[in-house]
Amino acid sequence: MTHSIRPQPGIEDIVLYKGGESRLDGHDEVLKLSSNENPFGPPETAKAALIATASTLHRYPSSDHAGLRGAIAEVHGLDAARVICGAGSDEILTFLCQAYAGPGLEVIYTEHGFSMYRILALCAGATPVVVPERDRVVDVDTILEAVTNATRLVFLTNPGNPTGTMISADDLTRLAESLPDHVLLVLDGAYVEFAEGYDGGASIVDASETVVMTRTFSKLYGLGGLRVGWGYGPAHVIDTLNRLRGPFNLGVTQLATAEAAIRDRAFAEHYRSENARLRTWLAKALAALGVPSDPSHANYILARFHDAEQANACEASLRTKGILVRKVAGYGLPNCLRITIGTEADCARVRNAIQQFLEGA
After folding, report:
1. pTM, whole model, 2 decimals?
2. By three-state DSSP, how is residue 265 classified?
3. Cα–Cα distance between 159 and 139 in angstroms, integer?
4. What span, in angstroms and rounded, lies between the C-alpha atoms of 149 and 55?
5. How far apart are CA 201 and CA 233, in angstroms?
6. Which of 24, 125, 136, 190 is deepest in the core (most CB within 10 A)?
7. How far apart are CA 284 and CA 291, in angstroms?
8. 54, 326, 15, 301: which is closest to 159 by C-alpha?
9. How many angstroms separate the CA atoms of 330 and 119, rounded?
10. Which stretch of DSSP H or E encloses residue 114?
11. CA-to-CA distance for 51 and 56, rounded, in angstroms?
12. For residue range 251-308, what is the model confidence (pLDDT) as tens digits?
């Protein structure tokens, strides 16, 4: 039977996003370092909060997310009225494209930026515009040169994924102040907590009517399996996004667990400290083997090999040892592997496995 049903323009151009693998045939215990997950899991306080919600699962959750928004505002010194919560920060990014992009309009992102930006632009019927980076670092001037009258959104991951590099607050401020007033700058801060002395752009948001920042509970707080994220922006933007948000987009369990997690500052500081220490150790250990990486401000490093052939061969070798890392050719980095920072034992295992590969063992 024939039909004339077709999706909206742009949707058929989407290449499906693929998350990091978690299984390997022949290996019962896989070391998964392909998705930038917290190797320690969520805090015990968050686990207890999750369990405590079991008796209330027959009740609808709060539709205003007041408790979680209040906790976010308290911890980060923000205005709770301008915080929006979503099913992962991806949902906030989706709302932004739904609200401000569309047919005939353009969405800018950088060449090594999060692959979901292109997908979300196409979902909205907009044209994705990719601009080059300079040695794996975002270039503000290149972004500004790409802006046209049709540009409506600029997505910027800072620190970058998968590069781990970042640009300064001064550069971010210059970008925000230089963009025309019909363009919304979106600062995607999924890895902000791992960058020393960076507020994720909150101060820039507070000084502007055209800047939004997004954050997630998936990385620092180990809640990737629950899908909780949030955004912070000008009142007019948050009001618009809330009109798109389903009233019950987050469940009782998500709200309670995320609130407990963000209030557990001791856990956050411990993981942040361990990540910084082990990130430095692994980067130096691999550099000593001839595998360099840029200084990372996230919970992973981007290991650079001689060429794509060597990177692919190393990734295959790690698989034979039960280790999963992330190939990033799809991000324009075919000679690189992104490696999540795990525990001390995980990092030592990765270092030894790569040494064995390089030595032909």
Report:
1. 0.90
2. helix
3. 13
4. 53
5. 10
6. 190
7. 9
8. 301
9. 13
10. none
11. 10
12. 999 999 999 999 999 999 999 999 999 999 999 999 999 999 999 999 999 999 999 9
Q: For each of the domains in the chain, give its residue range(s) and CATH number, in order of start.
A: 19-41+266-358 (3.90.1150.10), 44-264 (3.40.640.10)
DSSP 8-class letter at 124: T
Asked if 356 contacts 50 with a C-beta cutoff of 8 angstroms, the reply is no
pLDDT at residue 271 in the model: 96
Antiparallel, parallel or unpaired: β 106-110 and 326-327: unpaired
> What would you measure as the largest C-alpha separation in the chain, in angstroms?
63
Residue 360 CB neighbours (<10 A):
6
Q: Where are the alpha helices (DSSP H) in the chain?
A: 44-52, 66-76, 89-100, 116-123, 140-146, 169-178, 202-206, 235-244, 252-263, 265-288, 308-320, 344-358
Torsion over CA: 53, 57, 62, 68 (sign): positive
Angle at which helices 252-263 and 265-288 pack, to 10 degrees? 80
d(CA 114, CA 348): 28
Do β-strands 323-324 and 127-131 pair in parallel, antiparallel, or remain unpaired? unpaired
CB 71 within 8 A of CB 263: yes
Two tokens, residue 222: 């180990």
